[in-house]
Amino acid sequence: MVKCPAPFLSKTYELIERPENGHVVSWSEDGTSFVVWSPQEFSEVLLPKYFKHCNFSSFVRQLNTYGFKKSASGRWEFRHEKFRRGRRQELGEIRRKRCEPSIFPSTLEPCKKKEAPDMDSSDDQLLLEENKSLQRQNSELLSQIAQFKDLQKKLLNCLSQYVSTST
């Protein structure tokens, strides 16, 4: 029985396969990975066309949830053993990782026209944006941990009072 692949995987495969996108994203030479050659153009042109958002970091997080790994330093190259050129039929075997409920916002910011970044590289800009996002998430998680610790103390206190009154 052939399993239907997730829409994210089908769309990603489709955009890599299209020859007109080759200067922005393409298969590696051996077809076992794909490379985003121009993250800025990928974000501004291809992501909105295929995914209705322009957030490269969100795209990378989505790849991670399906088990893709960044496979080269210095460029945005991603690999998954079941995501290969000429093997579209294997996409249905790729499963999303099970994880805790997300604290990510349910909606993404609309695309904005960007000026050329002041930094030397669009990769640096993307990493800065990802870093800011991770710092926000870390802050939210620390806040949740503090709330759970407080709740734990209250529960232990309550339990302690219950045990002491019933003996």
TrEMBL record:
Q: Which Pfam families match?
A: HSF_DNA-bind
Q: What are the UniProt keywords, alphabetically?
A: DNA-binding, Nucleus, Phosphoprotein, Stress response
Chain ranges of the HSF-type DNA-binding domain: 4-97
Quaternary structure (record): Homotrimer.
Membrane-spanning residues: none
Spell out the residue ranges making up region: Disordered.
110-129
Q: What is its main location?
A: nucleus
GO biological process, any = regulation of transcription by RNA polymerase II
Record-linked Gene3D superfamilies: Winged helix-like DNA-binding domain superfamily/Winged helix DNA-binding domain (1.10.10.10)
Q: Where in the cell is it found?
A: Nucleus
The entry assigns this protein to a family as follows: Belongs to the HSF family.
**GO MF:** DNA-binding transcription factor activity; RNA polymerase II cis-regulatory region sequence-specific DNA binding
What domain of life does the native source organism fall in?
Answer: Eukaryota
Q: Which InterPro entries match?
A: HSF_DNA-bd, WH-like_DNA-bd_sf, WH_DNA-bd_sf
Q: Which GO terms describe its cellular component?
A: nucleus
Protein name in UniProt = Heat stress transcription factor B-4
Q: Give the Acidic residues compositional bias ranges.
A: 118-127
